[in-house]
Amino acid sequence: MMKKSFQESIDKYLGRKYDRSSIGILKEKTLHSIVKDFFAPSEDSKEIRVGDFVADICYEDRIIEIQNGNFAHLVPKLEAFLPKYKVTVVYPIPYRKWMCWIDPETGEQTARNAPRGNFNLYKIFRDLYSIRKFLLHPGFTLILTCLEIEEYRVQDGWGRGGKRGSHRYDRIPLRLLDEIEIKGLEGYNRFLPDDLPDEFTTKEFQKLVKYRGKYFGTTVRVLEEIGMIERCGKRKQAYLFKKKYESGSAKEMPDNTKINNSKSAKTGNLLEDNNNNKTENIKMAAKKTKAATKKAAPKKTTKVAATKSAAKTTKTTKTATKVATKVANKEESVIDRFLRYVKYDTQSNEQTGTSPSTPGQHELAKALAKELEEIGASDVYYDKEHCYVYATIPSTLGRKKAPVLGFISHMDTSDATSGKDVKPRIVEKYDGKDVILNEKDPETGAKVVLSPKTFPELLNHKGEDLIVTDGTTLLGADDKAGVAEIMTMASYLLKHPEVKHGKIRIAFTPDEEIGEGTKFFDIKKFGADFAYTVDGGKLGELEYECFNAAEVELIIHGRSVHPGDAKGKMLNATLIAYEFQSMLPAFDNPMYTEKKEGFFHLTLMKGTCEKAVVYYIIRDHDKKKFLDRKKLVEKIVKFLNDKYGAGTVELTMEDSYYNMIEKLKPHMHLIENARKAMEMAGVTSIENPIRGGTDGAMLSFKGLPCPNLCTGGYNYHGKYEYASVQEMYKTVEILKNLAEIYGEKA
Fold first, then answer.
1. Which of 156, 371, 512, 588 is catalytic?
2. How does residue 432 score in pLDDT terms, banded at 50, 70 and 90?
3. What pLDDT, on a 0 to 100 scale, did the predictor assign at position 656?
4. Active-site residue, 412 included
5. Composition bias, kind Polar residues: at what positions (predicted)?
6. 308-319 pLDDT per residue, tens
7. Alpha helices (H) along 99-163
8. Domain co-membership, 399 together with 493
9. The CATH number of the domain where 224 resides is what?
10. Where does a domain end: 149, 184, 219?
11. How many CA within 13 A on the CB side of residue 552?
């Protein structure tokens, strides 16, 4: 009955006679729609608003969420749903998969490939890691639906046939093979094989369950955190584990849900196929070898595609071309990382006089250093005094030499708005309307609304998933988005040694927001020939020209006298500060300038009659105009001291950084290759001068040429800050492309 019911859901959406031309016709992906229909008791139970979220299925006291991947999206939903509802998360597993390819220009579909090896169920822990704190909640249930599917991809990537980095178009379920319900410790006990030794290492566990890949450490970590296993010592450098949870009786569990990996076991169930991948892969290899001898044969297409009318073909072509431009969410963990990093309070503070300026930055630095070691980076070094983190992704080129490429981001966030207790949430498929961040501002009592009326660029993100704040703090995308993107790139390259790249160096810095990010940066230890900072905003931003910058401090000494007897005696320091401001060009102000126009910006003024302190920053792209602005400040100070007496106004003026274009002109390959990397990712570069500065500007003048790349973040330094999920994925893709491009220069 179960499988018949699932077939009815397939028939409902695709027709009883499945036609491959029906792929991609739904607003939501086909796999998600069919699985949702299978679990929904009625149409009225679908897409139900529950509080601030929309549940896939809701009836009585139950909620069912269909999640194909990126379980980080579920975190805010589970936090909201579980206190009031029983929640079941359904995870469709592509247990057996056939690949089909779509030509982005013609819309033609190739005949499907031979099925790939069966899905190893231990891979689910990569996604479960994001929601591990909910796994043992009494109201939480996980259901794995093991399916046979056809996956359609658009050949819009790179490499031979455009298959590398290609975009997944749709997945069509063909048959439900099995349904596995997991609840509580007893449910996860099935992932501990009967013949697991009393003490074992991660590698021994991995080998026993025939898991290929480098993510198995996540499986062990999740099982450890939920109390299934525990550490019990070390063997050389490897941790030893032992079972912590003991089932009352394995016989009480259904045969088709207990994973038994012993060679003698013959349960005949679906899950045992995990252990037969090797045999099946050999058969597949033989088929591929046979097919390889037919190179002269033309590419096959299905009869359906070949007999379509001209109008239908045109429509399919347009759809395929449109899909080819969408974002491919290949490295989903970039969002997991970002949501974890923003929880660290790392605001810098220029008033402390220490380096780093705040202790919270050390906490994130230690976490990043540990994570780098866990993903397999080498030369991991955490500067415990000054809070810098360095690491290496080793070359995969063998004896060939390529330039050493660096990627740098900063860990601190601005102190303009609180960065403590950040509570991010994901607005799925943004509809172009107002987003209510908070019903009541703690200070004003008014609603906090992220609106396209105030921020019109929001309309560029319709249909995207946006990470926003709760309206009480900043988000921290500047620059934890960059940190997450670099870490995700590193993880990918370390797990894919077949990707050819040279030696890559990574660095995370403190105190960038207060202009001290490179103060103790060890360029010699870093050892890169060239680098990129990942600290921009909008997708496609490529910045290699910035302001020349200086900071100004004025200490003004007045003379306080009783107002009743002040004539000819009083000297009001605060009024002299206002007089200084009035002598600056009125429209050379950030409020009235754009592009390459410079300014004087009053950042702080405080004082009394006796004493006033004033801070400015000076910015200009043009070096001569920058020097003229500094001369004007000196001229006004001289005038005021002549007028009110020597020493009335004390001036301290220091240069912060200079326009990096001066140092990047001899290394324009950095710009050309960044454009190429973006083009490979389907992104058009946006090359405007930075109306600000980055660590890259200072590093360029210290001898490390270093332009700046996008992150996908917007509205930095305030509670209206947000980041685009899709743009963050694309940024990771750009970074990976750069690694390969410089590897080709070996």
1. 512
2. very high
3. 84
4. yes
5. 257-276
6. 433 433 433 333
7. 125-128
8. yes
9. 1.10.10
10. 184
11. 28
